[in-house]
């Protein structure tokens, strides 16, 4: 069973290999096969036709020769002139080298003379029979050297005897062989010529258009949707090329639609983020200026305004304490929304403050390092804000989910890039299957980075902590559709 | 001789509250109230003021600029800064400009009064809730001398990995760059941290900067 299976597999592999031969070779192969078939048929047919006609011709000629020879032997046979008979026979053989033998018989059948060196071969003798009709008979005999055409003629109507003239077909075979050879040569030559021509034509009209099409397809695969195949004809290949061009055109249109949509989405996202920041800023300010001030005023009033007897000291103390608490809460809220220190003093100060605050609030050890070449100024606000927000999000996540003991925030400020790394030694998580709420925060970080032309990479493994790395190129990069359209990690 | 006080704050209710509080002190006299930076500068010019209570978050001219302008005209003026912000950065800047006291708005009445008196006397005063923060910023970061190791104890490969980590590359990226597996990177990283006695990437970055493995251009 397995032998047959192996055989089958071998055969199918062989047939695959054969079919995978290039189209060019296939066309060549087909034309060669056709040429060979044509040649073989031609060869065979012309050979046999010529043969037939030559044999016919030979028979006719042999009969004629025998007739005339018989005629010339009438008198010597009647007279029994052996000498003349032998002379005539010898001369006939001399003049026609194809003559194999001549046998002259007396009317009874006894051999009067012949041209054989030794005696008449017994096979030949066996085949003899007196001519039936009054005219000459021709028959073909087979021999070791080929065919013999024999003409049998009566001499003087049979009353003086009969004659057998045997001629070999050597010339015929030589002629036919010569013809075959010449046909073969011609065939070979025309096959070579035809093959060369066929190669050229196939290349021009079949393989080259196909290659061009394949090249265009390759260019499209690599992302060049403007690539087109040249359509030179309306045949099958041309139709394929036309269909391909249409397909490339619709791909191009589709991609530019997608790019447009992505650009629109990014600008919308940018607007949303800006609006969000504006809102936070204004809420922070309101909280700070209005609510905070009012609380402070209240605090002052409590401490000084109300006379002692209307408000006992203990109550006053409690109220004051509560107001202070409230004031702190409001302050913290406002600061969490939009720390004024970020706008006034920059990212380094804001982050250092934020990290210190979060570290003390959560009990986590959070290291902070801001490294920058000293001659570089402050980062532009549109980059400081996203970085700050990303750190906020990252640290919030660490505090609430990571179960870590230590975290670190590093900012590397260089001339053309700024790099932010937030790392913790917590329990990590599976980035690919983050739950919806987590995912939103992570996506938010990536979007914020992408909106300023940067990139946010999140690396985490369960049990191995988390690293968030943001790189933002400086120099006014536009939000890139390509960066934001990367598949979500 | 009364201490002549000018209150500059854009919040009317707060101003009146503060005024009421201050007038309970026998030797304090509130000579004026202003609500914007520009008004404050003009008022200081026109009136005789010993102590200016300045809210640095008034609309218009920023607080620090107001303080500078005022001190240009009256260099001996005592400025008590009143603010909601408890960030020491504001502290630093305002003291640099020449303010004498820094008080939070949620402070107790006694603190405010104390601040005014101290400023009037020519001393400096910081709200008690800010003291610890000021001191910690003064003390600065703990120095990191020979607690961390030296560069020579790292192998060349470890130095490479250390430098890349300092630049912010993740384990996966380092593995790709150096054509080694992630596990190898993690091993190198652990070795580096152990050899150099580093506790976090931040400390690693500091080490890298100090030892020339990280060049900031």
Description:
The complex is a heterodimer of chains A (489) and B (217). Chain A is α+β, with helices and mostly antiparallel strands. Chain A contains 13 helices and ten strands. Chain A has a five-stranded antiparallel beta sheet. A five-stranded mixed beta sheet of chain A has the order 6-7-8-10-9, covered by helices on one side. The model of chain A is unreliable at 480-489 (pLDDT under 50). Chain B is of the alpha/beta class. In chain B, 52% of the residues lie in helices and 14% in strands. Chain B contains ten helices and six strands; from the N terminus they run E-H-E-H-E-H-E-H-E-H-E-H-H-H-H-H. Chain B has helices at 12-23, 37-46, 63-73, 88-97, 109-121, 128-139, 156-167, 171-178, 182-196, 201-210; strands at residues 3-8, 28-34, 51-55, 78-83, 101-104, 125-126. Chain B has a six-stranded parallel beta sheet, sandwiched between helices. Chain B is elongated, with a radius of gyration of 27 Å. The mean pLDDT of chain B is 84. Chains A and B meet through helix 7, helix 8, helix 9, strand 6 and strand 7 of A and helix 1 and helix 10 of B.
Mean pLDDT of chain B: 84
The count of β-strands of chain A is 10
Distance between the termini of chain B: 60 Å
Largest sheet of chain A, order of strands side by side?
Answer: 2-1-5-4-3
Tell me the number of helical segments of chain B per DSSP (H or I, 4 or more residues long). 10
Series of H and E elements of chain A: HHHHEEHEEEHHHHHEHEEHEEH
């Amino acid at each position: 069973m397995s032998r047959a299976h192996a055989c089958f597999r071998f055969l199918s592999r062989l047939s695959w290999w054969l079919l995978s031969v290039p189209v060019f070779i296939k066309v060549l192969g087909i034309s060669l096969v056709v040429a060979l078939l044509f040649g073989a048929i031609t060869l065979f047919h012309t050979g046999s036709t010529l043969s037939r006609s030559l044999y016919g011709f030979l028979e006719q000629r042999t009969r004629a020769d025998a007739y005339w020879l018989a005629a010339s032997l009438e008198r010597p046979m009647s007279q029994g002139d052996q000498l003349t008979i032998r002379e005539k026979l010898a001369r006939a053989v001399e003049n026609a080298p194809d003559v194999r033998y001549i046998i002259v018989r007396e009317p009874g059948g006894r051999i009067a003379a012949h041209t054989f060196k030794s005696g008449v071969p017994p096979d030949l003798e066996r085949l003899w029979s007196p001519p039936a009709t009054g005219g000459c008979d021709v028959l073909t005999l087979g021999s070791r050297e080929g065919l013999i055409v024999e003409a049998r003629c009566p001499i003087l109507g049979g009353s003086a005897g009969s004659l057998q003239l045997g001629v070999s077909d050597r010339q015929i075979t030589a002629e036919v062989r010569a013809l075959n050879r010449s046909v073969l040569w011609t065939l070979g030559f025309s096959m070579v010529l035809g093959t060369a021509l066929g190669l050229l034509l196939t290349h021009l009209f079949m393989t080259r258009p196909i290659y061009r099409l394949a090249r265009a397809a390759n260019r499209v695969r690599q992302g060049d949707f403007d690539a087109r195949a040249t359509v030179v004809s309306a045949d099958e290949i041309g139709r394929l090329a036309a269909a391909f061009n249409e397909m490339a055109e619709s791909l191009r249109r589709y991609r530019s639609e997608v790019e447009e949509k992505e650009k629109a989405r990014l600008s919308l996202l940018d607007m949303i983020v800006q609006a969000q920041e504006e809102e936070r800023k204004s809420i922070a300010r309101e909280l700070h200026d209005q609510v905070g001030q009012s609380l402070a005023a209240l605090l002052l009033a409590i401490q000084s305004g109300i006379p002692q007897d209307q408000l006992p000291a203990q109550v006053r103390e409690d109220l004051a304490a509560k107001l202070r608490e409230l004031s702190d809460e409001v302050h913290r809220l406002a600061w969490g929304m939009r720390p004024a220190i970020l706008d006034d003093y920059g990212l380094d100060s804001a982050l250092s403050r934020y990290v210190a605050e979060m570290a003390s609030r959560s009990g986590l050890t959070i290291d902070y390092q801001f490294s920058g070449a000293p001659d570089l100024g402050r980062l532009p606000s549109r980059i400081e804000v996203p970085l700050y927000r990303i750190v906020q999000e990252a640290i919030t996540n660490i505090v609430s989910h990571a179960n870590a003991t230590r975290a670190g925030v590093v900012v590397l400020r260089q001339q053309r890039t700024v790099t932010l790394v937030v790392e913790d030694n917590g329990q990590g998580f599976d980035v690919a299957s983050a739950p919806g709420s987590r995912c939103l925060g992570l996506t938010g970080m990536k979007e914020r980075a992408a909106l300023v032309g940067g990139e946010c990479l999140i690396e985490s493994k369960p049990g191995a902590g988390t690293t968030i790395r943001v790189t933002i190129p400086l120099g006014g990069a536009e939000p890139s559709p390509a960066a934001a359209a990367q598949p979500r990690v | 001789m009364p201490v002549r006080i000018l209150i500059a704050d854009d919040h009317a209710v707060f101003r009146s509250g503060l005024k009421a509080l201050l007038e309970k002190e026998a030797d304090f006299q509130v000579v004026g109230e202003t609500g914007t930076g520009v008004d404050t500068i003009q008022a200081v010019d026109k009136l005789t003021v010993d102590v200016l209570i300045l809210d640095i978050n008034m609309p218009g001219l920023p607080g620090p600029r107001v303080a500078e302008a005022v001190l240009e005209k009256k260099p001996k003026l005592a400025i008590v800064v009143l603010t909601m912000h408890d960030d020491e950065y504001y502290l630093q800047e305002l003291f640099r400009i020449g303010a004498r006291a820094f008080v939070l708005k949620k402070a107790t009445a006694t603190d405010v009064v104390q601040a005014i008196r101290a400023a009037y006397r020519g001393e400096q005063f910081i709200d008690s809730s800010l003291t610890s923060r000021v001191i910690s910023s003064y003390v600065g970061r703990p120095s990191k001398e020979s607690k961390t190791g030296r560069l020579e104890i790292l192998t060349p490969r470890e130095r490479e990995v250390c430098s890349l980590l300092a630049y912010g590359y993740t384990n996966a990226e380092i593995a790709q760059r150096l054509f080694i597996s992630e596990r190898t990177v993690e091993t190198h990283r652990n070795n580096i941290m152990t050899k150099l006695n580093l506790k976090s990437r931040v400390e690693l970055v500091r080490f890298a900067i100090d030892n020339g493995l990280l060049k900031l251009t």
